[in-house]
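Task: fold both queries, return tokens.
Query 1:
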Amino acid sequence: MACPTSPKSGKKRKGSPLEASSITPSLSCNAPHQETRRPKIPKLFIDTSVSSEAPDSADYSGSASSTSQPDSLFDGDGDSIDSPTKFTPSDLPVHEPSPALVDAPPIPGFFYTPSIRLPTELADTIVAHCLRTYFTAPHIDQIMLFCRAGTPENPPTGLPPIFLSLLDKLSGLLRSSLPPEIHELLFPASTTLARQAIINRYEPGQGITAHVDLLKRFGDGIIGVSFASGCVMQFASVSDDADTGEEKRIYDFYLPEGSIIVMTGDARYKWTHGIEKRRADFVDGDEGGRWIERSMRMSITFRWLLPGADILT
């Protein structure tokens, strides 16, 4: 039985929130970042029908959305199953922040090995499949697929074969770099949980609001894969407790094309992640930093659906 997909689309109009068009489901199966000031950002349009204006200066530099409180993107009344909304391109000049890290930031539960990349041939095949099958119009930039729980005797169903092949490849690539219990969390032989695959397409200049994936909807263990282009993702600790003296920590981290990241534990629950709207990223290099231009980028994120959140499967 084929799995449901959910294309996310909408028209962005000046001076009004993004208005999502009707959705027709189809069937298819390490040093801290230093604080800098940023230019004033014009009004942002988001698909939660809320628009806000960023202040002249942010709590931390380079934030994807300095106006969002971390817990405003947790599970609250009226939350959508969609991920936080992607920003639209901007003509703002690109400022020069501190260079983004190229090695994994020191965040508990965050795993990244620079030498582990998705094979180019498989990555290109997946991008071509998604562009041909899902992203068939300019306003479609997000697709959600769902995989039912399964066992070796009754394998999971719902995801198209190309994404099952991707999961198998990721399991093999990550086996030697992850602790055994983390690998088992991500790739169990049997599971009672359904899995979601969310596919996002970004044009140069687009970003996504800083967020923690919904706590009451998604479980522990998130896999993110970058396709076609790299970009900087910013990670920020949620806690900022003056009583304990723990200050907010910020890391800008460059995700190269073909890179694979894993977020568990603190990295999944206690840190936000987001992408600032830029057309290029300032990345650490031999001479202190270099600009790397973005091109069309696609990401695939695998998440576990908690009981009660799998009604679409």
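Query 1 returned. Query 2:
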Amino acid sequence: MSKRENGAPEDQHWQELKLPQMLFTETVRNLHATIENKWDSLQQSACQMAAGRALWNHVINDPLADLLAGETYLRSLHEKIKKDHNNSAPEISGVILAVRTLWFDSKIEASLNSMGGGGSQVVLLGAGMDTRSYRLGCLKETDVFEVDFPSVLQVKASLIQAAARSTENLGVTAKSLTRVAADIRENNWLEKLQISGFVPEKSTVWILEGILYYLTHSHALQVLKIIADKCALAQTILLADFMNKPSTMLCNSIFHFYSDWPDHLLPSLGFSHVNLSQIGDPDAHFGLLDDPRNLFNKLRNLPRSVQTHPDDGTPCRRLYFVQASGSPNQQIPFSVISV
């Protein structure tokens, strides 16, 4: 099996983890000590996502990812990748993060293009260590808002400031970047967003990446409904990932919200179009899932209603990538891309 069949790079540079010297400065070490000692699992997941971007840098260009991930999360994921690679695993640790990142990147660009140029907004709810405002050229005419816990935004800003002091040409590629300290589980996050400059009447792309399943069902539905209601005011596009029920039933799982049929749920909340993809579909592949033994390809060949794999009795754990949209004058029945 070639290395590219399971998404791994062709060369062997990954065998030895090379950490940037900046990670060992006192300022950065102290910031990451705060993350490891004071943040909960939801907040720390932001560093795990950054580690995925850093170690899959043969397909993702994110010069800030190492710094935001930190030594602990980089070493942990690197060991898993090396073990999978040495065992010729059909899928390599972190490939889900890589595919998800690339899917969101591509859909953000396509969504902004569909909105016809400047004047649009992008809102990242549970932004964590996201760096798209620094690395995506398609945001150059777009106002970006990052919403997350105050502690997360403060540490992230401090880490990026540390990088800026020693890195040339590190700047925001978006038209503007506004960080909004708010908890989307509370009722006032939208008010805080609007006070920070968000305009409900402007075309907006809403990003919910790796966050919905950490919320309770009531909180998740509340957030989705608030976004759906914006379809009555302006062109609105939601990009989100959903777990099905078996995915939340792992031992010691910290996940709560799930939807086996998000393409049915979202129209009931007010979206007029819903497109759904699974990992391995043509728009969620990116040349990283060519091994025929790959788990995700096996799942795609089963009806989505199947909860247990008929071959081995294991749960069918699925991750759905969903694009939903609506606008004031649009009353078109939703369409489902894959079922």
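Both queries returned. Flag for query 2: Residues 332-339 have pLDDT under 50 and may be disordered.
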